[in-house]
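Supplementary Data S3. Sequence and structure tokens for construct A.
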Amino acid sequence: MKRNLPTGWTTALAAAAALLGGCGGGGSGGFFPPVNPPASSTAVPSAVKTLSNRADLVSDGDAYIEVVVPAGSSAAGIKVDLNGADVTSKFAIRSSGRMLGVLTGLNNGSNTVTATGANGKGARLSLTNHPRGGPIFAGPQVKPWICGTKDGKAVMLTVEGTGLSDSVPTRVNGLDSDPTDDQCNAPAKFIYYYEPQAKQGSGCTLTISGANPCFVEYQPAARPSNAEIADFTNDRGVVAKRLLRLEKGTFGRGTYSVLAYFDPAQPWEPWAPQAGWNGKLHWKFGASASGNRFQQDASLSPFGGFVWDENALAAGFMVASAQLTNHNDNNNELLAAENMMMVKEHIIDTYGEIRYTMSDGGSGGSMMQTVIASVMPGLLQGLQTGVSYPDAVSTWIETRDCGLLERYYQTPSGSALADAARAAVNGHPSTYCKTWNNSFINPQNPTLPANCGAGFPASLVYVPGTRPNGVRCSIHDMMIAIFGTVTDIDGSIKPKLPYDNTGVQYGLKALREGAITAEEFVQLNEGIGAFTADMAWTGGVVTAPTVPAARFRSSPDVFPQIYRSGLHSSARNLAKVPIIDLRPELGADIHMTWRSFQARARLDQANGGHGNHILRGSSGFGGAALAAQSFRMMDRWLASIEADKSPASLETKVLANKPADAKDGCFATPGGTDAELAAELALNDPACPLRPTLSPRQVAGGPVSEDIYQCQLKPLTLADPDYGATVFSPAQQARLAAVLPLGVCDWSKPGVGQTPEWQFTNFNAGPSGVPIGPEPSSVAF
């Protein structure tokens, strides 16, 4: 049934435009600004700009600043001060013709940068600086959080506000020192690599591991001679030495890694980067999900985010990743957006402006990409999503539904259902729900110490009734800054969850199509129940279940901030980025093809089309050739957008500059070789291995966009056409009324609290959030 969505789907366009200018690293959409002619005359500053981030979101006490002067001006007579102190010596007219400098020593909180010409006129900019450890906008930080140490050692952990304490082993932070404060800050570490000249042309891989790695470590004080170092040519045609520097450090209590072509024998300033870097950044996002409470080395995540990307390094990209943008280390994508912003600001302050940032990552790594692009437009310019989901918060709808169905199928009534009937109710073969249940029901359980990370003491973990003040170790407890909390009937404080199933008629499509009987439909709906905030099943014991089993009713005030903030990915903002969706067919797996069409449904709903979304399917996990093709395709797409100097909107430029070969396609193989890629199929070709399915919520009548957490209700009317020719007995009618007393879902209407409006939101003051608004600009005087 088609939903009638509200008209006037709008976004905070002014704020979005400001973000695009402030977060991408200078220029329109984050691209390099034009080069001005050499200086020749004095001038009055017309503006002061931050180049590395928005002026109100700066962190770590430094900022890359431009004092805007007319083309051809000199810096003579111009004075710059920071909070009244003269910092003019930090600035000069650089080779680009722009007056640039990096300010350090910013106060936490308010700062003022003033640029004054010889005639006393100029411009003034207010900056707000935040601590390196955060937070900035993602809300109060989860506690406890266990800082990593250089070598890993046991520390005493005390749960704040309780008498609970125990010894816990820390993780290795990948740095050369232990943290210097309780925000896990520690000095950065630098590791240097080179490719020996003897390896050039040997077919080695651009990594430090494997059978034939190109790179070996060296000490900067013992840099090999130029004759010993291989050359490479980046994608700008610049020949440079194959020298890399891996920077590892901390931001926002997590760790980060930045891998760049870097020669320690040559200078590098942000206004004069070394020639080996092509000015582009590639960000690696990691998969999975957990309620992790440990800082650890970002490069050690078992679920991706590794910076040794051959495609990026071959072209001259800088490559970055961060612990908090690995979904297994951090389930909160809003926090990931904040952390990526901080690390990108550091990159720009240190290395220079970024032409554009593209990314990749599968599963949880795809959620990271789409949500970050939704929360803060401009951080990412191009997404490569693999085995994708639009976001995490809506993905748990299917996970929990599958978990409920798996419990119902163990009851006397449920176990009597044939496998074909179960598949019809699930919307896919029954093995798929088993995989969901086995993989991601436990991470939602707050009582499991492993959810807080291996080695977390069981003595500190929440136990209902016994240890109510213990640490709750679920993925949802990592989201309380946005979800908020509620005091449950047992007196414990728990996250305010959005996973409502009141009024959901499970198996409705299966009933209408004759796959299940009226009695099986009634039994299913009175027996399926719900999960509590502690993941207890309301159906009780499977051998003697509670009937009817209670459904879960969410508090309606949890929904607006989920929709507005971009945590539920805002398809309106996603129209600002090209998306290449690499969709393998993996068989009985949680990564189902319908998720790609879910993303398209949201794009269609918000923008009237999905031309920026390219779907590339394959059999099994995509091979190396398919990944390389996608990388090059995205790079060409973004380069064309960069070159487009028209006044058109970014959304228009994304569509207008799509390469001709950037189109939907499918491969009957994994795409491991160029020969396999030559046999490209259409998505609708019978040989295409993609197998579209549904979800349990879609079988219940919900939309493929799966964007409704709490449905609006209508009266239970069994004469409704939704039931087809089904006839219910009076007793069955009474039983359905008992389990659906408030009515049933009206899927033609938006969800409770659902809004298409996006607001860049600060959650530091509480889960309702405060709109951040447009980026501040300088004031002339």
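Construct B, processed identically:
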Amino acid sequence: MAAQHLVQTSRFVAAWLLLLARAARADDPETARTEFFEAKVRPILVERCYGCHSAQAESLKGSLAVDSLEGLLKGGDLGPAVEPGNPDESLLIQAVGYEDDSVKMPPKQRLPDAEIAVLRQWVAGGAAFPATAAAPAAKARGIDFAEARKHWSYLPVARREPPPVADDSWSQSPIDPFVLAKLEAAGLSPSPPADRRTLLRRVSYDLVGLPPTAEEIAAFESDTSDDAYAKVVDRLLASPRYGERWGRHWLDVARYADSKDGVLMYGDDRIRPYAYTYRDYVVRSFNEDAPFDRMIREQLAADVVAPKDEPWRLAAMGFLTLGRAFDNNVHDQIDDKIDVVTRGLLGLTVACARCHDHKYDAIPTADYYSLYGVFAGAEAPLELPLLDDPAKTPDRKSFEDAAAAKRAEVGKFLDDQYALLSEEARKRAGDYLFHAATTPPDPLETAVFFMSLAPEQLRPPIIARWRRFLKQRAVPGDPVFGPWAELMRRDDAALAADASGVLAKAVDATNPLVHAALGAATLRSRADVARAYADLLVRVYQESKSTPPDPSDTARRQLLAVLQGPESPSHFTRGQTQAYMSRGDKDAYYGKVLELDRMTVKAADPAPRAMVLVDSDEPYAPRIFVRGNPAQPGDAVPRRFVRVLSEAEPKPFARGGGRLDLAEAIADPSNPLTGRVIVNRAWMHHFGEPLVSTPSDFGERSNPPSHPELLDDLAARFVEEGWSLKNLHRLIVLSATYQQASADRPDCRKVDPENKLLWRANRRRLDFEAMRDTLVFVSGRLDPTMYGKPVDVANDPKNGRRTVYGLVDRQSLPAVFRAFDFASPDASAERRPLTTVPQQALFGMNAPLVVEQAKALAERPDVAGAADPRDAIRALYRRVLAREAAADEVDMAARFLQSLADEPGGPKLAPRAQLAQVLLIANESMFVD
């Protein structure tokens, strides 16, 4: 019977899912609906509907307001606009889908199918429309920052006096009194300490992501010195495996991936050849215990602060450059940078203010575009900086010579295109001006995705800029476009009759060249006015190339300023050249860049390079995009820090584009968020649950910390003691709180079922990296090689590298990664989900990785060479579970091996390998107490 029981265990390991199910965290449906509305629905309503159907509209069209659920349910002249749960009967869905010829909204152009699908999903889900009345700090027209700063996370961080407790003898670190006081207030007590084997296993997984060996456990259990545990902690923190473990935690926040996200990219074409240098930077920085404030500065502005003798630190800027490409939508790319910086380092959802003031937090749209300006003024150089000697090996030198030639070819192509397109934009300024003045706006002018253009076609973005330029400059009194303003507001008949009078009245305030050109032209229509201006501008520009204007020639200089300089509609930077290329030239350019990447991926030993950003020659002057639409720039804003974190009006960033200034503001010890956010993330990985339940959102919608005084004290210590993560780990794992046993206590569970008061340790399942690394480690196949290009850990069961060095393919994340809750690399991850699905158990029973490690264990000399099966069983227990097998376990396993040997035809996998597999996927191996 015992043998049959063990066979069933090997075949039906899925029973362990019952335990996992209790640990799974169910998402709050209300929160999910709110986040869906804010991320997907509200931007559509704001951009497409608010202009005519909201409190912001000059007049409410059709008596319909869509800026509240009440307005939608009340409806307008045609009745209710939404029937929650029933999109087919909702007038809003019918109107945006153009289902009825009598009601089409928006009237000029049907919404894209993707946006209609979002609205249908929203209505079908109940049309959740979060009220904003409960957030007075985020009023659209005036935020009370003083009132907003009373929120718990904006209050200054300070050391806290330990609270008084009844049992002084329990505390072993400054953490413990804060925890014990909460327990005593609830009538609870801490759990007894964990046994030494359990504690060593727990701290080993926490700090290095690997289990202790049987020898290490025996040594710890026999060490009776007072500092035995402290010596273990110091040993683990000094291990190079520490940086691999904790570096991976940070890579989740940094949304790290080794690949691009191009839809039509396959094989080597999808790999970012130097992405791995950021991963290596993170691992090395954690191992060196680099102060975290230094890491903040380097990840945002290493091009400015990295020491010349430590070029490897330049790779820190992968934090900004390794996000998604969003089909080359530059606005989404910048939004991604804002999101990873503010959620990752500040715990603020600033990206929610892209289209409108934040609906909950004191973050106006102006703050979003202040940060937008910081990142819009940075661009990736064509030649990335080297991190190591390119002549170190003959292969490396040979590759670098070939790559340098290819890089020069790409650079020349870009320079030639920039010169050609810039000149064309000025030479054809007349065509652009005439087109902008005589044709209605075209949606292509504001498109952010790729445009297919022939060489002779006008560039839509330049047309759009001419329209905006005219809107700003064509006002009475402007010396160049003042007459334009007066003439163009007349219809053709009135213009022909009044032209001479308009010119006569404006003669003193008008540029004389403009006045002369208009006076000499026959002005019968607005098209004639546009052509007269166009001919004048082009003539003056062509003349200037042979005869530059004298400094005193104000008239010509005013006209040339329209075509030259950063405010000119014809101006764009070299870094933006690709967006203005013709289709053929653009394809040729990206083909050359891809060829260079492909060469690098295929090279055996290319010199590593850092994926940096550098400030463009001209700092970006940001403007608020009205409703998030880049085609509608509004008020100018300075590049500066978010206002709710600044006591007074924040000063504009003065150094370059502002990335270093931003990093300094984030790492400023007076900033109340950064220390709290980092400490909370570290606490989460040690205890399984954070002190603040939303690690990337410390705003108005966050729950207060379970232990607010403890969080503040830890954050203050963290900053005061030099931003050292290793010191923080030491403080946490040496506490009596951390060293508690994990056994259940029904009396405590009745009072605190979620263990928020920390009356015991939390039992936790190994994450994907720790699980795979454990399998490889106990089989004796772990390859300790550090750093370098990514390897395939998903499809190569014999690969012994640690999982942190595995290829992370953003475009096609391997199924095993997804099955075991790997963080999505598409966006900054605040924490990993915890799911329980059959694929996890099936992986343990069938995956080649598990089978290969089981075979390797069975082939070890102490297992394969044991003549007595019982000796082999004991060897497997020592190797896999790092303990001696109990007598009944040896008896059961021996009967199991015998039953396999007696199977007709013999088992497909050797009996001892099958036993090894059972132990590898046992709960004792896959969970940490």
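Residues 6-14+765-811+825-928 form one domain. The longest strand covers residues 633-636.
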